Structure formats: structure tokens, C-alpha cells
Amino acid sequence: MKKVQETLKEVENMGFHGEGYKKIDFRLKRKDFIVGKERLRRILAEEGLLCPQRESKPRGPQVHDGTIIPIFPNKIWGTDMTKGHTIEEGKAHVWALIDHFTGECLGIHASKSANRFEAMEPMKQAILEVFGKYEKDVANGILMRHDHGSQYTSKDFQKEVKFFGMTSSPSFVRTPEGNGVIERFFRTLKENCLWKETFKDIEQMNAKLQRFRKNYNNEWILERHRYKTPTQVRQIWNQKQENVAA
Q1: Better pLDDT: 33 or 154
Q2: Count of domains observed in the chain
């Protein structure tokens, strides 16, 4: 019983909510707190801390049967919008952009309006973050994954995508998994920031979102990258490229 209580206390003190038992097991081992993966899963299940599983259903032909995870950074960027709330200004729109390979949040922005120019802000942040400058064709070859929202299909947004050298890559209609990387990010964002924090206004929300972005990139771990953070994945890739060039 003591071990169970100690385990639950360690889990409660972790920085992120919504992680699976495998990630929690990794974080515990990194702190030299050994439980055992299967025992950990049993403890979490008994305490109701595991996510409910969907029942499997027969699946027919799909328009999306491949992977949306490329094999290197700056191949596919995904962008989308979700919603939040502020005390003084009411509903807020939250925009973000994710690199599909590294899992980095390269841009995040909150606004009162939901127009096409607000939708461009995370893309501009990402361009500056990765390339350090705004310049024609600076992001040549990147696929910009987005849904069919009017902001993303607008002439202004598409013109901006083309200016930076990117190619528009809309997800299939009624197939949200095509933009699933950022949808998964939004789940983490809601559980650890939007639903957890209180925001006075849009300005304060933007400040907290930028702090979350930094923390997420440096602390969130990715199972597909052997429990490395998005920042570590980018650093390792950059080092490999430098070694090849040398």
C-alpha cells in the first residue's frame, strides 16, 4: 500500500497530464523510482487514471491509409485552430503549428478574431524560429497541412504559403486523422493549459501560451522517438546533418 501511495504521489507531481503509462514509467525510471510497467498500469487503472479505450469497429476502405509522420524535419508542418476562454474578453481562438517529424510546436497564437490573418501568425513564428528570417522561398519544399476552414483556403493564406515556398496540403474532407499530429497536440494543450489555467485577457493568454510552448518542446517526451523531447529530436537531427556536411 505504501508503494502505491508513493507511486501516485510521484505521478501527481509530474509536469504533464494525459500521458500514457509507458511515458509515466519512463519518467519514473529517470527519477530512479522503479515500479514495474505492468504494476504501474494496474495501479493507474485501479485509480481510474488511464484513458478510456474506444471499442474497435470494422473498418472499410479509407482515403487515408498511410502515415502522416515523415522521416525528417521540415517536411510536413500541420496547423489548425482550437478555442479557449478569457475572463474579460470571452471566447478566444487559439492557433498553432507543429512539425510532424520532431513534434515541436513552432508557433502558437491567441486572438479574439478568427480571420485569415490571425491564422497566419503561427506560420510566421515557425518561419522565424526555424529559418531566422522572412524571405521568399525560405521554406521551400515544406508541405503545409491544414483543414478546409475558410481561413486556410483563403487567397491571402494560400498566397503567404506560396511566398515562403511551401506547398498547401489540405487534409481529406471528413478525415481529421490527416491532420492528427496537431489534433494530438491540442489535446495536450487543453489538458495542461487551456482547461487548467485562468486567463484574464488575450494578452495574458498569449504570454502563457508561449511559456507552455517552451515547456512542451523541452519537456514533453515522444514515444516514437524513444522518449526524447521535440527539442532533443531537432538537435540530434541537426547534429547528424552537420556531421554529414563535414
Answers
A1: 154
A2: 2
